[in-house]
Design goal:
alpha/beta, 14 helices, about 375 residues, globular, 7-stranded mixed sheet
């Protein structure tokens, strides 16, 4: 491989949330969704050149930024984005909060497929709305939509918005085009707006294909960012793609009300370097992540077969069923942290009912680190 994903980059002691938050010097962190790999060389070079300038005042977002976004999604995903549809902001979670604020009224219901990324719950509640869950069904080492339940929830007169995670966090599903079309058809039938969080859209495993909801219809809002895909979350940049002019005006207003309308110069140059110069790095990354997934799956099958590993289609977050161990998720999480010194994400973060009995493991790290963590888990 051209890029060395086996390299150990020491992050402890750098005020790193992932490595320094616990205060345990022996902890292997496999929880929060960032990667332990260096960024692509083109991104690092672009940042170094920007730092060398030495002045970091307020900045405008140049046309080259929009061109990079449009070109990337056209060639990578065959999705044509109009320049006028793009609104930039600091990150996908603030984007989500702005979109919910703009497109709902307090007291309305926002539908999600659960278990779901924990910030879905907080963003919905913080905007005065009610979380409405449609639980996913576990099917043959994966998860499927319960279409009858989904339609019944959309038919609720208080449901006005469907918040999708594509690829799905934490279950690792990459939704097929026919599934996305069916979601849209049902939502359109009941006048439910669709908002799609596509922050992991480049982390796609072999034999899978990602389809943006924006390919299905212009009658939606899509949120994306290079942050998860290129490991630049700390640089704070994201985009909201809103083709509907009326919705876009309301979202733009919410961005300004929430004061997340200004972005920093490093996020801008990093996005351009990612989308314009780092596609080969991303392709190698996905191959490495796939091999990490296979290593985890095979190790658990041999050494801890009670743990059932969900098939990974996208993201670097593996959803693992631990119910056969006969202990609660909170207790298993405590034991993993305190005794094995491995920190994962407890499934209950992603829905107290639908996440019970599961843990989420971040495999975006050098393989030697992954294997050490797996050995600790197996010998607990």
């Amino acid at each position: 491989m051209k890029y060395n994903f086996d390299e150990i980059v020491v992050r402890r002691g750098t005020n790193c949330v992932k490595w320094d938050e616990s205060g345990d010097p022996d902890m292997i962190p496999m929880w929060v969704a960032d990667m332990d790999f260096r960024v692509a060389p083109a991104i690092q070079k672009a940042l170094e050149e920007r730092v060398a300038h030495g002045v970091f005042g307020y900045n405008i977002v140049p046309e080259s930024y929009y061109e990079a976004v449009i070109s990337w999604f056209r060639r990578r995903h065959r999705w044509t984005i109009e320049r006028s549809s793009i609104l930039y902001t600091t990150a996908v979670v603030p984007a989500m909060s702005c979109v919910i604020k703009a497109l709902t009224m307090p007291g309305e219901k926002v539908l999600i497929l659960s278990p779901a990324y924990n910030c879905f719950f907080s963003s919905i509640k913080n905007n005065g709305c009610e979380v409405l869950e449609s639980p996913l069904m576990a099917m043959f080492s994966s998860f499927e939509v319960d279409w009858d339940d989904f339609e019944a929830k959309c038919a609720d007169e208080k449901t006005t918005l469907f918040l999708l995670c594509n690829p799905h966090n934490p279950c690792g599903r990459v939704w097929r085009r026919d599934e996305l079309q069916k979601m849209y058809n049902i939502c359109r039938k009941y006048d439910v707006k669709v908002v799609s969080d596509e922050i992991h859209c480049e982390l796609i495993m072999p034999d899978q294909r990602f389809f943006s909801f924006g390919i299905i219809t212009d009658d939606c809002v899509v949120m994306n960012s290079p942050s998860k895909n290129f490991n630049t979350a700390g640089l704070q940049i994201a985009n909201i793609i809103a083709p509907n002019p009326a919705w876009r005006r309301r979202i733009d207003r919410a961005i300004n009300i929430n004061e997340v309308c200004d972005v920093n110069p490093f996020g801008i140059v990093a996005l351009e370097a990612a989308y314009n110069e780092s596609e080969d790095w991303l392709d190698e990354l996905n191959q490495y992540l796939w091999q990490n997934y296979l290593a985890l799956r095979d190790y658990f099958a041999e050494h801890l077969p009670q743990l059932k590993v969900t098939r990974l289609e996208g993201t670097y977050l593996v959803w693992v069923d631990h119910r056969a161990l006969g202990i609660s998720t909170d207790e298993y999480f405590r034991r993993l942290c305190d005794e094995a010194h491995v920190r994962v994400s407890p499934g209950t973060m992603y829905g107290p009912q639908t996440g019970e009995g599961y843990i989420r493991i971040n495999i975006a790290c050098p393989r030697s680190q992954l294997m050490e963590a797996l050995e600790r888990i197996a010998h607990l």
